[in-house]
């Protein structure tokens, strides 16, 4: 479809290592003048649902400063757009949980808050796991919680998990499991 907006001018408002805020003078779809603020993300959002052979997954708990709430989520972080997303996912999984995965499935892409940002998110399923030491960065004070995959789905359904990437990823993974769309060994573990 053709873009119904007309951009007249663009002005950077704010810039840091993670985001840039840009204000656009526009004509809206009705032809009226206005402004549109856009948050431009400098990294991809990367999420991982790790599945252990016993059917459990790992959730990460942390305080989310912008919301001023504690949040349970799948392991997530930022990935350099110049790096293959799976490599960023591998790094994030080890960093936050200490887990390394032998098998990976990229299964979901999302645009988060697309009315005000261009944030692009990619979710992976990871299995054939080995445990090691987590290496969170200085901005992370993390708790790790290992739960059955079905329990994580329940938590998403009942609002105990509210992070968009986690909720969408867990529910899509459950639907793919129910529809027989996952590799057999992964599906077998997730049904335990």
Question: What this model shows, in words?
Answer:
The chain is of the alpha+beta class. The chain folds into two domains: 6-41; 44-190, Nucleoside Triphosphate Pyrophosphohydrolase (Alpha-Beta Complex). It is built from four helices and ten strands; from the N terminus they run E-E-E-E-E-E-E-H-E-E-E-H-H-H. It has helices at residues 85-97, 149-157, 164-178, 184-190; strands spanning 6-15, 19-27, 33-41, 44-50, 56-64, 69-73, 76-79, 99-111, 120-131, 143-148. The longest helix is centred in the last third of the chain and has 15 residues, at 164-178. The model has no long low-confidence stretch (mean pLDDT 96).
Summarize this entry quickly:
With 192 residues, the chain is an alpha+beta fold. It has helices at residues 85-97, 149-157, 164-178, 184-190; strands at residues 6-15, 19-27, 33-41, 44-50, 56-64, 69-73, 76-79, 99-111, 120-131, 143-148. The relative contact order is 0.18.
Number of strands: 10
Helix count from the secondary structure assignment: 4
Order of secondary-structure elements:
EEEEEEEHEEEHHH
Residues in helices, as a percent range: 10-25%
Q: Could you give the distance between the termini?
A: 45 Å
- CATH level-4 homologous superfamily of the largest domain: Nucleoside Triphosphate Pyrophosphohydrolase
| Helix/strand structural class | alpha+beta
Uncertain segments: none
Mean pLDDT: 96
Largest sheet: 4 strands, mixed
Q: What does the radius of gyration come to? A: 19 Å
Overall 3D form? elongated
> How many domains, in number, for the residues?
2
CATH fold field value of the largest domain: Nucleoside Triphosphate Pyrophosphohydrolase
Strand arrangement within the widest β-sheet reads 7-4-9-8
Question: What's the CATH class label of the largest domain?
Answer: Alpha Beta
Give the DSSP E fraction (strand runs of 2 or more residues).
35-45%
Indicate the CATH architecture of the largest domain. Alpha-Beta Complex
